Each structure stands twice: as C-alpha cells, then as structure tokens.
C-alpha cells in the first residue's frame, strides 16, 4: 500500500517559468517540477497525532513534485512559504539548501523505496536550511562528506522518518535553532554525532535509532531538551549532554534523558582528530560533561564496557579549550531510577584508578569524575557506582509530569512592531543614499515626496524595480529583497519624514 | 612609557603654535549618521533590517535571518561627530605625523594595506591593522582579545610609543590649547568642565561605532532576494557554511564572526617568532597562537590577511584552510588547534566560489565623510585622500 494518496497533477509549467524566472537568470534547459494543488490527503493522513513544531502547511499552497532526473533545488526555488515539495522515489545527486521559511520537503515512499539523496562521496551536505518552519521527512540520505541534514538558525523545525547511512560528520544537526523535533529517524555510520543538537533551545529528540556512529545523540550548548524513547546502540558513546567551551552559546541545561535503550555502545572511536568526541572512551552509555539540570530516568543502559553513565567536569575531559565564560562544572545532575546491567566490564584505566580509591572492582554503572555541585541519585544501591560520594538522595522521583519542552506556539517570526518596520528600513538602508533635503547618492527626500505625494504604492513599486530616471545620478539598486509589507512600510515612512534625520 | 625624544618635543611645540592660529569654523552635527535614529534623549540608536529577526539567547549569531549581537550605541550625534574630527586629526600623535586614519584608512576598509602596520618613525608593529567596519559589535578587541571595551582600546594606540607615541598629559595640553577643540568638547560633553582623556576616548568610540556595513549583496540575499547573488556566489555561500569547510562555524552570520577565540594555526612569516596571541591574554597554553575570529564584512578591501598579513589574497586564505589541519606547522608545534579546523580538501571550483562569495560581503554605503580640514589646522596625513565621498 502506498503511504500517501497523491493528488492529481493539474498545472504544468511554462507559464510559471516565465512568471518566476523572467526577470532573473533563466536556464531553459532545466526541467521544471510539476505543480499540483495542495491536497488534504497527504497532510492529515501523515501528521495527525504527530508532535509538531512547525506551522501547518498552507491549505492553499502548492505541492511541487520532483521526480528522478529533476532537481529538488529547482522546486525549492519555486516554492513559496507554506508550499510542499514532494520528492518521488529515485536517486538524486545534489545538495539542497532552503533559505526561505515554511517549506515542507517530503519524500514519497512507494512500496518501501524512498527518494534517495546520494552525495557519492563528493558532495558536501545533503540538506541545509536556514528558514523557519522547515519540515524534512522520509528521505534516504547517504554518502555525503558534511552533514546529512543541517539547520542553521532555523526555528520550528521537524525532521522525521529519515534513513541516514554513512553520511559525513553529523547525521542530523540542527544548530542555533529554537523549537524543533527530531523523531523516527534511523541513522548509522556517522563520524561524529548521528543526531547533534547544537546551541539550540526547546528540542525534542525521540523514537530514533542511532548506531555504528561515534556519538549517538549529542545535546551540546543547548537548553530545554528531551531525549526519549530512542534506541541507541553500538556507538562509541550513546547519549551525550555537553558544554563545549569556546562556542558562543555557553550553557547546557534542562536536559531530560529518559526511556531510551542505551545498549552496547562499544564501537571503536573513529572521530576526527581534535574533535571533542574523539576523546570519548569506547563503551560509554551516557556522558554528561559540565551540563546542568540533567535528568536521567527509566533508561535501559546495558553492555557499555566503560561505564553506563559518566559525569565529568571540563578539567577531566580531553580536547577542551579554555573559555572563562563557560562553567566547567556539572550542577544538579539528577539520577532517577534506571535499569542498568553489565556496564563497565572492561573499563578504562582512569575509571579503574578511581574505583581503587573506593576499594571497588568489577562492573561500573555510574561514575562521577571531578567537581560537581548539588547532584543527586534516587537509589544508589541499585547500581555499581563510583565517585558519587557527595551525591544527595533525590527528592524528586520522576520527570513524567513534563511531556516535552516544545513551545506551545511556533517561535514568533517577526518581533518588530509594524510601525517600526518603515523606520528600520529607511534608516537601515535608504539613509545611506538619501537624506531629507540634501543630495547624496540619490535625490533628496523632499523631491521624492513631491513626486509621490499620496502614492506610497507607487513608491513601493519603484523601489522593487527601480528604473534609471535622472541622467546625473547613478542607478538605484533594486530593493526587491524587502518584503511587500516592508516596502509599503518604508514608502509610507519616507513620505512622512518632515526633518532631516542624518 | 619611553620618554619622547627632544626632536618630537620640539615638533610638539611647533604644532601647538599651528593650532592656536587655526581659524576654520567647526561645528558638530546635531544629527545621527545614516543607519542611526536620534532618540528623545539625544542619543543615536542603530537601526537595521536585521531587527526583524530573533536570535538564540540574543547572541546575534545564526543563519541568514538572525538578529545582530549587542551593539555599543547610545552616543550623542555631537560625540560621534567630534570623534570623526579626532579620528582624522594628526594632532593626536606626538609629532603630528599620524592620525588614526593613517592605519585605519576609509578607502581600505579602515585598514591600511600593510601586512603589519607602520607606526611612528617608520617602526613596524607586531600585527596588522584590523578593519573597523562594524567594530561597535565586537565584544573583544585586538587580535588577541585583550580589550573588551572600545573606550579602553582607543587609548592604546594613542599612548603606545611605536604607534602615535603621545602621553596623556601632552595630548591634553595640546587639545586644551586649541580653541576649536575646547569649544567642540564643550558641545559634545556639556557636563565636563574641561577636556579629559576619558571624553576623548568616548568620542573616538562614538565615531567608530558609526561604521556600519550591513547592506551588501549578501544581505539582500539573506533578507530574501535570491537573485542578489550569482550562481557562483551562492555555491560559495554553500561551501562556506557546509560542514566540510565549516567557515560559518566560526565566521558566523550575520556579522561573520562568532566573537570567540580560535587557534587555526597560521604560521608566522619565515624568521618571525611565534605570536602567542590569546595565550598571554588568558594566561592559558590552550590558547597559544589563538586569535579572535575576525568579522569578514568588507573583507575584499583589507588585504593582506591574518594577524600579521601572512596571506596576500583571499585565495591564499581559503587554500590554507583547504590544505587542512596544521599544514603550516611542524610536528613539534604544541598548539591545540580548534576542532573545526579539519581537512576540507576543497576543489579549485569550490575555492573560487568561496572567494567570490566573500566578495559579496562588500558594502560601503554608510561610509562616513572624511573632513576636508580638521580642528587642529594640521594637514590630513592618511593615504587615499580625496577619493572619499564628498
């Protein structure tokens, strides 16, 4: 059975091509993707009951179809916010970048075959996005040199149901984003972290299978993250919550790691020299480095040969740099009940040395190294522990009252009030060339006011597509990067100026 | 401080005479520079389209549509304009031979085209002059991040024996002897009864903070006009932010710096000793050879590159990164290289694309006007005079 009922193709493309590309570079040899009306079938069928962080697709938006031999990037370029790009099964050899908001990039799975992005060992990243409300689903991604899916400051993202094999440095790497979910992905063979949440807030990582990678799931310099219900096995280290010093975001706090299977993470370390993960001893289930307010609960942690859980400060961690602005000490690590068995059966010399100071030998489930503030453990008697001398008994017993740290509403995309929009655009851009009553690069505002009195639309149109008018002035560069709303606001602002500002 | 030579003292007397006869009329602007809004309390506040966006923990680092980092604004229009005169006025140097603009020339991206700047009496300094574009956003100043405030920073070159070679006493004396400056400082600092070094530093910072460059073609792309960059430049952007080259991990938009320190392992020129950089500032071996990550706006204007101008062109810079971790260091070198310095092995196409992309970061629309005369009456001394905008 096909997972999606596809809607019929309605319109084809030559008119659209003229419309979208007429004024820009046109390459007629490129095949344009088909355009279909957005259908309800796909959305409601696949998104019901699913944890959401992005805006829903625009019900009147367009669905762009891409088939093998066509370019996904081409469709992304044509798509408007709220549109969906559907990619049919087949092999695609490209890097896709999304520098716009609110795009659903969705692979079609047909009788088990997926849309496969294959970097063939020569392309850098498979999918790179910087927009907000980006959804990436159902792809197979392999053989890229950089990352499979990377976000750079996109908020409200959803990355799910992707199969990522042997692809570069990170499998899924949302960076500098707020409010996002990473769920139901299967990722293996990654030289750093299979899933790496970097410098991000309000993140949910759940129901993923990550294996054969150096790190399974890494939460780094991030806040408010839940990592739950994942199957993390056969990596060098399973789940990590880190502060890496030297990054511009300085803290990791409020991380809940619960209900995961963290099993047999004994893979030899193949991390790049100098990388933080290159210092992780093979056989580490969970590693907490300098992070604060971390809860570890109801995980099954077994067969990790160095230790089930390692908690360390920066002074005892290899490869960290100096950063006076980051606190090297983990605070308030909360170890609730977990099922731990057969960990630390072949541990490293450092841990053995620590065990000796407590006259212990044999297995080790939990080890705490270096400084630590106000951490606790609920039932220490259940585990083989070392270095937990100053841990209190926890007063809480569960984190279950918190479902996730996602925001109730997507992050607001434009914090500027409307009335200021005209001002920031005028002062931030136009004022370099226009002044109230003097000649700069462009003509004085008073002259423009006389020409466009009561005609802000005319002015807004002109700046989107300026014509050469005055022989004694240079050409004005187009301001088409300003949204329609901003152009209108700046036009109104310019027409109201009654004194010089600069 | 080394005592100044008798020659320079004698010169200083001559300048004092020149100054007291200076007659031009100078007044200070009551308006903010472009890109700033005048507040009701008579301060200039930065305005930018980037204010439309948010940024994680308000750090001003991210992707295409990310707000700017904290900015050092709040100066009055008068302080900014006074700073502009001071910046170009050779009266600040002990012998009237140099202004700030000698090493921070408006036409060279507020740098000087030298590998390492040339100071007083032709002395070569240890490092190159950084661009001052967008310096008001910097939380760390100087290559080795040894200063955190523009105000404190400005005093260093003034009173450094090899730079402008002045002393606070002598500088104050010359300024106080000058009727123009007495009047201008009174206007800019009505609460101060006399010219002070602190006020001088504030004025210089005020002017430098007005050097805003945020309207390049890249910015047009970032705000949403994807035709603002050529295909090659977009390819370059994608290599730049890829996890193969990883440039944007350190040179993070929107300013193309993450304001951190990194050890990237550029060798000094043959025969030069190692510049330990941030090791000294933070007293840590881990930062040996570390420098602050420079912002890359207007980068095509400021060759040569790196802390001592080791790289002549942007191609050379990108090739350096491409060749990989430690390629200029010998095995005995103990620097702890940054984890994002890897082995990108970029193709020649990719290198050309990155260089093309860096070229799209140029924007001088807010370039300030170089005064045609300065309050001291001394002739302007920096290069490229007259090619500035009228």
What does the model show?
- The complex is a heterodimer of chains A (502) and B (390).
- Chain A has 502 residues and is an alpha/beta fold.
- Chain A is built from 8 helices and 35 strands.
- In chain B, the strands form 2 sheets. Chain B has a two-stranded antiparallel sheet. Chain B has a two-stranded antiparallel ribbon with strand order 3-4.
- In chain B, α2 packs across α7 and α4 crosses α7.
- Chain B starts with 5 loop residues before the first helix and ends in a 31-residue tail after the last helix.
- The N terminus and C terminus of chain B are likely disordered.
- The interface between A and B is large, with 75 and 68 residues.
Number of helices of chain B: 13
- Report the count of strand segments of chain B: 4
Q: List the secondary-structure elements of chain B in sequence, H or E.
A: HEEHHHHHHHHHEHEHH
Find the count of extended strands of chain A (DSSP E, 2+ residues): 35
Radius of gyration of chain B: 21 Å
* Percent helix range of chain B: 25-40%
Tally of individual helices of chain A: 8
**Main sheet: strands, sense, barrel of chain B:** 2 strands, antiparallel
Task: Describe the global form of chain B.
Answer: globular
What does the largest sheet of chain A look like?
14 strands, mixed
Strand content of chain A: 25-35%
Would you tell me the overall average pLDDT of chain A? Answer: 89
Helix content range of the residues of chain A, please? 10-25%
Strand order of the largest sheet of chain A: 1-2-3-6-9-12-15-18-21-24-27-30-33-35
Note the beta-strand portion of chain B.
Answer: under 5%
* Unreliable sequence segments of chain B: 1-10, 16-23, 386-390
């Amino acid at each position: 059975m096909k997972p999606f009922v596809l809607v019929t193709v309605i319109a084809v493309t030559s008119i659209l091509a003229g419309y979208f590309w007429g004024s820009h570079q046109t390459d007629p040899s490129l095949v344009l993707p088909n355009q279909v009306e957005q259908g309800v079938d796909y959305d409601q069928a696949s998104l019901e009951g699913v944890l959401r962080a992005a805006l829903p697709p625009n019900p009147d938006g367009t669905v762009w179809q891409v088939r093998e031999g066509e370019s996904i990037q081409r469709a992304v370029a044509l798509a408007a916010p709220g549109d969906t790009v559907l990619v049919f099964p087949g092999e695609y050899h490209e890097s896709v970048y999304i520098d716009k908001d609110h795009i659903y990039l969705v692979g079609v799975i047909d009788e088990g075959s997926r849309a496969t992005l294959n970097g063939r060992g020569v392309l850098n990243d498979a999918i790179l996005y910087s927009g907000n409300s980006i959804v990436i689903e159902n792809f197979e991604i392999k053989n890229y040199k950089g990352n499979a899916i990377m976000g750079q400051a996109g908020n409200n993202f959803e990355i799910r149901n992707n199969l990522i094999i042997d692809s570069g440095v990170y499998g899924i790497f949302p960076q500098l984003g707020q409010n996002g979910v990473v769920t139901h992905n299967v990722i293996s063979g990654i030289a750093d972290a299979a899933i790496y949440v970097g410098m991000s807030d309000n993140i949910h990582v759940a129901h993923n299978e990550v294996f054969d990678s150096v790190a399974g799931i890494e939460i780094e310099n991030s806040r408010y993250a839940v990592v739950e219900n994942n199957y993390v096995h056969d990596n060098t280290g399973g789940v990590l919550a880190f502060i890496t010093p030297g990054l511009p975001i300085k803290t990791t706090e409020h991380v809940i790691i619960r209900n995961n299977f963290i099993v047999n993470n004994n893979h030899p370390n193949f991390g790049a020299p100098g990388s933080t993960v290159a210092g992780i001893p093979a056989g580490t289930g969970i590693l907490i480095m300098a992070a604060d307010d971390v809860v570890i609960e109801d995980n099954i942690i077994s067969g990790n040969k160095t230790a089930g859980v390692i908690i360390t400060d920066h002074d005892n961690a290899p490869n960290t740099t100096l950063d006076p602005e980051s606190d090297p000490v983990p605070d308030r690590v909360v170890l609730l009940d977990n099922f731990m068995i057969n960990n630390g059966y072949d541990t490293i010399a450092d841990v053995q040395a620590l065990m000796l100071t407590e006259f212990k030998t044999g297995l080790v489930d939990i080890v705490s190294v270096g400084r630590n503030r106000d951490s606790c453990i609920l039932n220490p008697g259940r585990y083989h522990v070392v270095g937990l001398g100053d841990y209190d008994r926890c007063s809480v017993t569960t984190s279950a009252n918190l479902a996730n740290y996602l925001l109730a509403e997507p992050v607001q995309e434009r914090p500027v009030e409307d009335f200021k929009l005209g001002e920031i655009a005028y002062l931030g851009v136009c004022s370099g060339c226009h002044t109230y009553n003097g000649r700069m690069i462009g003509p004085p505002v008073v002259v423009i006011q006389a020409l466009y009195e009561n005609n802000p639309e005319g002015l807004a149109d002109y700046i989107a597509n300026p014509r050469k008018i005055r022989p004694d002035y240079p050409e004005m560069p187009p301001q088409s990067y300003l949204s329609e709303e901003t152009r209108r606001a700046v036009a109104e602002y310019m027409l109201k100026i009654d004194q010089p500002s600069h | 401080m080394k005592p100044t030579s008798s020659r320079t003292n004698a010169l200083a007397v001559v300048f004092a005479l020149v100054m007291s006869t200076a007659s031009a009329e100078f007044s200070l602007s009551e308006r903010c520079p472009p890109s700033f809004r005048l507040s009701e309390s008579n301060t200039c506040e930065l305005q930018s389209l980037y204010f439309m966006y948010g940024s994680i923990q308000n750090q001003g680092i991210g992707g295409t549509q990310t707000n700017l980092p904290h900015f050092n604004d709040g100066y009055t229009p008068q302080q900014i304009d006074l700073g502009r005169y001071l910046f170009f006025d050779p009266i600040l140097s002990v012998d009237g031979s140099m202004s700030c603009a000698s090493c921070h020339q408006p036409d060279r991206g507020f740098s000087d085209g030298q590998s390492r700047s040339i100071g007083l009496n032709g002395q070569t300094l240890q490092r190159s002059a950084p661009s001052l574009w967008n310096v008001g956003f910097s939380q760390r100043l100087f290559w080795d991040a040894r200063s955190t405030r523009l105000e404190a920073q400005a005093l260093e070159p003034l009173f450094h024996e090899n730079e402008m070679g002045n002393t606070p006493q002598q500088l104050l004396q010359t300024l106080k002897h000058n009727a123009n400056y007495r009047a201008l400082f009174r206007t800019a600092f009505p609460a101060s009864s006399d010219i002070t070094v602190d006020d001088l530093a504030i004025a210089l910072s005020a002017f430098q903070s007005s050097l805003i460059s945020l309207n390049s073609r890249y910015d047009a792309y970032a705000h949403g006009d994807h035709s603002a960059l050529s295909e090659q430049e977009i390819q370059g952007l994608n290599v730049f932010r890829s996890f193969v080259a990883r440039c944007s991990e350190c040179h993070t938009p929107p300013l193309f710096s993450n304001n951190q320190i990194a050890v990237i392992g550029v060798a000094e020129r043959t025969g030069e000793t190692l510049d330990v950089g941030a090791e000294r500032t933070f007293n840590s071996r881990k930062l040996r050879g570390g420098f602050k990550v420079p912002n890359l706006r207007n980068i095509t204007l400021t060759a040569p590159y790196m802390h001592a101008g080791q790289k002549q062109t942007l191609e050379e810079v990108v090739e350096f990164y491409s060749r990989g971790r430690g390629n200029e260091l010998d095995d005995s070198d103990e620097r702890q290289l940054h984890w994002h310095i890897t082995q990108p092995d970029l193709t020649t196409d990719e290198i050309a694309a990155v260089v093309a992309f860096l070229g799209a970061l140029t924007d001088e629309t807010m370039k300030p006007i170089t005064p045609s005369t300065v309050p001291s009456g001394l002739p302007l001394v920096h290069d490229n005079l007259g090619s500035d905008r009228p």
